[in-house]
Write a structure and sequence with these properties.
The protein is α+β, with helices and mostly antiparallel strands. It has one domain: 3-Layer(aba) Sandwich (Aminopeptidase). The protein has five helices and eight strands. The chain has an eight-stranded mixed beta sheet with strand order 1-2-3-4-5-6-8-7, sandwiched between helices. A hairpin with a 5-residue loop joins strand 3 and strand 4. The longest helix has 16 residues. The protein is globular, with a radius of gyration of 16 Å.
Amino acid sequence: MNFLAPLTLTGNLVTLEPLQASHCEGLEAAAADGELWKLSYTSVPAPGAMAAEIDRRLALQAAGSMLPFAARHAVSGRLIGMTTYMNADPVNRRLEIGSTWNAASVHRSGTNAESKLLLLSHAFDQLECIAVEFRTHWLNQQSRGAILRLGAKQDGVLRSHVISPDGTLRDTVVFSILGIEWPAIRNELLRRLAARGAG
């Protein structure tokens, strides 16, 4: 099975649909919700840069190294962010979920948890992954907390791993969920979403 074959993943709170150039305007509005590009530890496109970021992700998809999604709020129908499958290794049945951001107004609303449930369910239940990885900036405490709340374990820190656009060196924190851990993590995600009335 092609790990990166485009597909739509549908939940109660959010739908993840294959990224398209036509998503640009809605994603610009989502990024403006909280002025997310101003956060030094994220890579959310600044005003006027969304089209180029969509083109970049679609080029990586065409090259076979990324499957990008636009996240759409199920109730309002508005676009609220982006996420991707990336760095897929079909031979070893591994991939990374990353390049994720969500509009500030939906933080802690359950949309991110459900997005991860949809992505992890497909990765483990359909693609039969052995492990799914997450990476984030050492300084991004919000992202690190969200990944830990998913039930992922921290594998380590890659120090001075990436040169950021401003020239600073980024330390990258690496987390993963193993296939054998997935049933318990899935049950906990479903419990959390049910507690919000989203299950």
